[in-house]
Structures are given as structure tokens and as C-alpha cells.
Amino acid sequence: MALQKKLDAWRGQIRMPMPLALWVQEQGQRNFRSMNAELVEMVRRFREEAEAKKEARA
Prior knowledge:
By secondary structure, the protein is mostly helical. 62% of the residues lie in helices and 0% in strands. The longest helix has 23 residues, at 35-57. The protein is extended and about 35 Å long. This is Arc domain-containing protein. InterPro entries: Arc_rbn_hlx_hlx, Ribbon_hlx_hlx.
């Protein structure tokens, strides 16, 4: 019986303009994170802000 690897994260590829990618990489270095971890944190913060705005309008 083969073991199945259970993933709790989506894996994929994205494309972005090089200047933006370099900026994200720089932000990650400043925050002692990988580029991936920095993108995850940025998206998480954006989601929190969007949800807070949505709740404020309700």
C-alpha cells in the first residue's frame, strides 16, 4: 500500500513582473523570510484587511 502525502497547502506557479518579484524578495529579506513566506504573509494581511472592511460595512 502506497503512502499518500497529505498536503495542507496549495502548490503552484505564478508569474509576476520582475520588478515586483525583486521587491517581494527584498521585503522577505528585510523580514527574514523566504520569498514564498513573504508572499503568504502579504496575502494573509490583505485578506484580514479585506474581511475587516467587509465587516465594517455590514
